[in-house]
Protein 1
Amino acid sequence: MTTRADTLARAATLRATFEAAGAVPVETPILQPAETLLDLYGEDIRARAYVTSDALRGEQMLRPDFTVPVVEMHMAHGAEPARYTYSGEVFRRQEHDPDRANEYIQVGYEVFDRANPAAADAEVFALFAEAVAPLGLRAATGDIGILMAAVRGLQTSEARRAALLRHIWRPRRFRALLDRYAGRVPVPTRRAKLLDGALDCDAPLIGKRSQTEIDARIALLRADAAEPPLSGAEVDLLDALLDVRETTPYALAQLRDIAVDLPAIGPAVDGLAARAETLAARGVNVETLPFEASFGRTSMEYYDGFVFGFFSPQRADLPAVATGGRYDALTRRLGNGAEIPAVGGVLRPGLMLELEA
């Protein structure tokens, strides 16, 4: 049976490996200000985190992950380029799956380097692949940036593009919006009445929104309803993109074909090609490396480019042993006007020991 001492010892070994690769060890408080995470992700984060209150510091969260506080630390005080490693507990609610641990140890490695993002992606992936190599795990890779580029290239209003981008990490909501914007589903009865002015506007106000806020929301809904539907061709191209699931060379070929009719994804696809070259240069067998255009869409919402994970083929009941990806936009959100390309990942040493048992 794996003990906490065993897990901490493996975490120390992994952290030492990352230090040998040039990372500086850092620590972050277990209690994190809730305001930052709520600002980034909205109230959805409450379903995944433990929230408490402090009379002096306000609302706090038990650390749901390390990346946000490490980014805040780097953007406030870090030099360029920089590499960091860390280890410690994270806390996640698992109400949908009570058999999964709600407190566990993570070990991470983060790279802040603007010189060559593709090389940084390959560096992180190769280090993690080497760390889990004895476990015989299945690798998965993707690139959220390609889907984001496709959405930004849609011939529709900025409001609709923004809504789709906001829900990329919520596949069901994204699909529902896409079908609605394409006119493939009827407008809900209550919304149709609201748009037609058939609802009772003299009813007393309930809730925290003012009448001005309600009127503004109704105006936005009516403006959206007046927008022409997305073309079927564009939706079909998005569906074709989301269906790409191949080894990297074949995925690249499919994406280049899609880019002929959806040129907005061209630069992101070129980025995937550059990453494949740097991965190969680091000894990764790109010819057999899986690529899924939809991979990573249910992870933490700060990933906006390359994403990866390592899973046990024999233990489908286990979560990913390692995950990571690129989060350039997060550095812009937390950088007070500054930004830097960044990529990183985390390992779960407890799961590694469980698979070795």
Protein 2
Amino acid sequence: MSVRVRALGAADAQPYWDVRYATLSSDPFAFGTTAERFAALPLEQVAQRVTPSDTRVSFGAFLSGPDGQEALVGILTLVRLDSPGFAHRADVLGVAVLREARGQGAGDALMRAALDHARSWEGLTSLHLAVTDTQAAARRLYERHGFQVWGTQPDAIRRAGQVLQEHFMWRPL
């Protein structure tokens, strides 16, 4: 199987919704939002979110099966901050790969696409993200791509009786 990454658009809203909902459901401690909250969003709002703009782009990782059919298996959103004092930075958000597609390079391909795109934004000097302490594999992925922890927030997220820490990471471009 080969991985192909491309920027998503409004026409990808339903597959994006499917992947986001599935990953929020299977990994509830990985994200700040819940599957239930996401499920309440109208598809039109999801389409707006995945439509690229000057400061936002969502990428999708597609795996080709033996039959040649491609399926969306991973997502990542890159958002450049537009306030003058923060325009030098962008946030990596909502990184998710379907459980059954993990270990096949989708996460690495998404991160490479985000880094390449970030370098195309003039004046951008750093990328930032957050990862919960339950997501060791995601943290290793980010570290492989040059991110490093700069701080940890204790008691960051509480869900289902569990208290999670969030590690804040950054990397220069």
Protein 3
Amino acid sequence: MRQRVLDAARDLTCASGWDHVSLSAVAAAAEVSRPSVYKEFGNRAGLGRALVVRETQEFLGSVAQALYPGLPDTGASLETAVHFVLTEAHHNPLIRAVILAARQGSDSLLPYLTARADPIFDTAQSLLRAWLTERFPGRDEELINMAADITVRMTISHLLLPGAEPRPTAQRLTAAVLKTLR
């Protein structure tokens, strides 16, 4: 039932934006009762958080595939992963809907990517910390943590704010992170 509800919430959000998604509409689309949705998610904010966390976990699974086993060259591997995030986020209908809504002044799901993003940041940073630790054995843990933090925050920033093309952005971000680690 949980997956059906999340799938319905995703479909409705992609079709009309989170601002237009009600728990009643999600329950109807998922063919479950509205009280069941409330029981599972608590409220609309709980559903939104669960939806963003699920999508992020799936998305970060793809990022992990870009990193592991990765290219032999650490810089090329990191650049590939950052470029993947910057390009694939625009192909993912839910992430694209959140980003476009934020750019148009609606931030209803955006806080789950920014201000209330602990599960997202923590998961992404954990993935990067583990990868960077393998690629830079013996480096100071604080330096690894800082590099992971910079990578995640700057990548999300570039997703939310229109800017340069993905490839040069990935190159600059990778160069900055590698400089930090050297």
